[in-house]
Amino acid sequence: MQPIIEVQHLFKKFQDVTAVDGISFTVGSGEFFGLLGPNGAGKTTTIRMLYGFSPPTRGIIRVFGMEISRDWRKIKARIGVCQQDNTLDPDLTVEQNLMVFAGYFSIPPKEAVSRTRELLEFFALSNRRNAKVMDLSGGMIRRLILARSLINRPDLLILDEPTTGLDPQSRHQVWDRLEKLRASGLSIVLTTHYMEEASRLCDRLVIVDAGKILVDGSPADLIERHVGRHVIEIGGPDQALRDFLKAQQVPHDDLGQRIILYTPDGNDLSAAVRANFCHEQCTFRNGTLEDVFLRLTGRELRD
Amino acid sequence: MEIGVISWRFWKVWRRNLVTFQKIWKVNFITPLLEPLLFIAAFSLGFVGIVGQIRYGGAELSYTAFIAPALIATAVMNNAFFETTYASFVRMYYQKTFDGMLATPLSIEEIIVAEIVWSASKATAAAAIMLGVLGAFGYVQFPYGLIAIPLAFFGGIAFGAVGLFFTGVVPTIEMFNLPIFLFVTPMFLFSGTFFPVSNLPLWAKPLALAFPLYHLVELARLVCLGRCETVPLLSIVYLAVFAFLFTTLALIFMRRRLIK
Q1: pLDDT per residue rounded down to tens, chain B (260 residues)
Q2: What is the SS3 string spanning chain B?
Q3: In a domain, B189, yes or no
Q4: Which residues, including other chains, have CB under 8 Å from residue A151's CB and lie 6 or more apart?
Q5: Residue B250's Cα: distance from chain center in Å?
Q6: Count of structural domains within chain B
Q7: Do B259 and A14 touch (CB under 8 A)?
Q8: A144-198 pLDDT, tens per residue?
Q9: Measured between beta carbons, which residues in chain B are less than 8 angstroms from residue A131?
Q10: What domains are there in chain A, each with its CATH number?
Q11: Residue numbers of the domain that contains B246
């Protein structure tokens, strides 16, 4: 089957900074695809090239089998974009925001009215339809942006950090709606730096850093491959533990005050650790995408 | 520039501005309604004793009759220029309205053209109201005076385009002070608005002739009073070239600013 998105050797340079450094990936129809990476990794730049906002320095982008540089108008008509910034019209009401946006897609007014009603219902905004955007909470604004990105009934939804800055309640509500959309067969591309979000939503994801793709796979795959199913965090490690780990050649990260062990099977080794080295504090838990992310992109601050 | 980047779709952006304009339409109509009244009051009450008649285009005119068409032209300049500077800058920079639009089938060129056409439309609405007010006082000869309405749209394009060009180049919104001080204010004062350009010393005349407002004022006097000092066709050509030039520059600099 033809992929929805095909990206080949994509580059983007700003003056002397290379934001995207030769990445390639594909997104299949109906797939929920994640683009993960620390701040400044090139996620938003990549996404902006995908929906035709910024022209690539080099490389090929095909969406729905069409070249973005040539058929941008046809492609954009079939994409919904939820940008990171709030680009809603503060002068307009909730309803007018959707109606005006429908106009940009040349949706007939009658149809726009019924889609607006439907989307406000879906995103639990019906009772605020006449409110001014300025009077909405952060969670409602995000839901309205999402609603607006679906006004053209897109075949592909692009989400750039859709839950950044939301409280847990609002975030879970957004996730719930996104899962419903995925179930309806919509293809979705998501950027985020919430690993919980990516694990829960993405069928497949790539982790990018410094404009390059580090890994590609399903969340479970990546955890299995790069961390192992079980993780032990040991507080206040001593030299004996360090020697033991060295002798046993156990993959681990030494953070000074804390050592994190990655154990693929989780039986013999964890029993040994539990018996001999858990002096202060030991946490036995499952490996997460966050472990993968931190192992691959390091722990240094990015901005 | 590619072919086919500008289509009828720009009306959708124009309509968006109309919808927001309608929200505060009462406020938007007060200025063009009251401004001419203020000017007429000030000049006919306070100025007439000092200035008396003005010699313009081979005839004697009352001072208020002389400035009335210039008030319309100035309103066109202000409405269009302030719309594509401050208002467009707010939409572009603070509200990120254009970023949102660029995620739809709209092209950047359509957005820019729509902003300019919208500013001209707003200027036309203001000019039409002023025309009515000034006409009621007998300062406009009808029916020719009605030509001031399409003329306002034409002039609005020129001033809207130059405004959007500045929006494409200024780093911050405060920087609009500069083109206003160096471009708009001198034009307002020296474009034959408050005194005939023929009164200026010889060296200053070419400067006034270079101002687009001068040509709009002249054309406004022609349609409202039936007389002018210049060759009308030259003024039309000048404004058309000016509008074309700055629309092109606005397209180039706004694209450079928005598309990264």
Answers
A1: 455 677 888 999 999 999 998 887 777 788 888 888 888 888 777 776 777 788 888 888 888 889 999 999 999 999 999 999 999 999 999 999 999 999 999 999 999 999 999 999 999 999 999 999 999 989 999 899 999 999 999 999 999 999 999 999 999 999 999 999 999 999 999 998 988 888 888 888 888 899 999 999 999 999 999 988 889 999 999 999 999 999 999 999 999 999 88
A2: CCCCCCCCCHHHHHHHHHHHHHHCHHHHHHHHHHHHHHHHHHHHHHHHHHHCEEEECCEEEEHHHHHHHHHHHHHHHHHHHHHHHHHHHHHHHHCCHHHHHCCCCCCHHHHHHHHHHHHHHHHHHHHHHHHHHHHHCCCCCCCHHHHHHHHHHHHHHHHHHHHHHHHHHCCCHHHHHHHHHHHHHHHHHHCCCCCCHHHCCHHHHHHHHHCHHHHHHHHHHHHHHCCCCCCHHHHHHHHHHHHHHHHHHHHHHHHHHHCC
A3: yes
A4: A80, A98, A101, A102, A105, A107, A112, A115, A116, A119
A5: 16
A6: 1
A7: no
A8: 999 999 999 999 999 999 998 888 988 999 999 999 999 999 999 999 988 999 9
A9: none
A10: 5-217 (3.40.50.300), 228-287 (3.30.70)
A11: 10-41+56-258
Residues written for chain B:
260
The total number of residues shown for chain A amounts to: 303
Q: Residue B139: what are its φ and ψ, rounded to 5°? A: -90, 0
Tell me the one-letter amino acid at A161.
Answer: E
Pairwise CB contact (< 8 Å): B104 & A101: yes
The Cα A140–Cα A4 span in angstroms is 30
Interface pTM (ipTM) of the complex?
Answer: 0.87
The residue of chain A with its CA nearest to that of B101 is A104
CB-based contact B155:B239 (threshold 8 Å): yes
Cβ–Cβ under 8 Å, residues B197 and B66: no
Helix axes B232-258 and B148-169, enclosed angle (nearest 10): 30
List all residues of chain B from 5 to 34 with a beta carbon under 8 Å from chain A.
Answer: 9, 12-13, 15-16, 19-20, 23
Q: Which positions in chain A touch B88 (Cβ < 8 Å)? A: none
Summarised one tens digit per residue, pLDDT across range A63-117 is 999 999 899 999 999 999 999 999 999 989 999 999 999 999 999 999 999 999 9
How far does the CA of residue B10 sit from the closest CA of chain A (Å)? 9
Per the CB < 8 A criterion, the answer to whether B75 and B119 are in contact is: no
Structure tokens at A58: 């080099």
Backbone angles phi, psi at B254, to 5 degrees: -70, -40
